[in-house]
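ok so i was messing around last nite and threw this chain in just to see what happens. nothing serious, just curious
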Amino acid sequence: MSERSETISRLRSEFNARTSYITAKLGVLVPSKIRALRLKSNMPRQRDLAIEADMQQSRISMFETPGAANVTLETLAKLAAAFKVGLKVEFVPFSEMLRWENSYSQDAFDVTRIDNDFEFISSEAEEAAHTIVVRGGLNQTPNVSASITTLNFSGGRVAQHEQDADIAVLAPKAEIEAMSQPQRQMAAAGGEW
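result:
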């Protein structure tokens, strides 16, 4: 049996092997991401980040050293806030974790800061968008997973699912709520509302 096959067999059957594998990957990649964000921020020195995150410089050094510290979610949230970025923690398949490790580059890694996150800023400034799906005249909350073709018109956007006949109408919530059922159907058909 090859070394890879033995590793996969252990990961499939042993809780401790899975825990060690996950801990090892996180223990290398998370510190590298913290360092990359710091070096690409306006806080290139550990001391600057420590002040911004309300921590000691020695803790920042530990967090950037692979395997040196167990970083809590609270600490990651403080670091994300100091970097002005969001934080997402996900449970993923092992294959995705392996791809994450193999494709990661500290030099290429960067995250858009909130001041330059125009998608976030514009959605905050505008009224929340709302989506309806028109199915034979019924309005339902969409579960959009299919690829879509988008048509822009009259202040709203219509997205037609290629895999089925459903139509998603994307527009400001107040505008959709003000539409009558026939207007919604016309909008879904690509007409003006």
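not much to say yet. Residues 150 and 159 are 5 Å apart (CA to CA).
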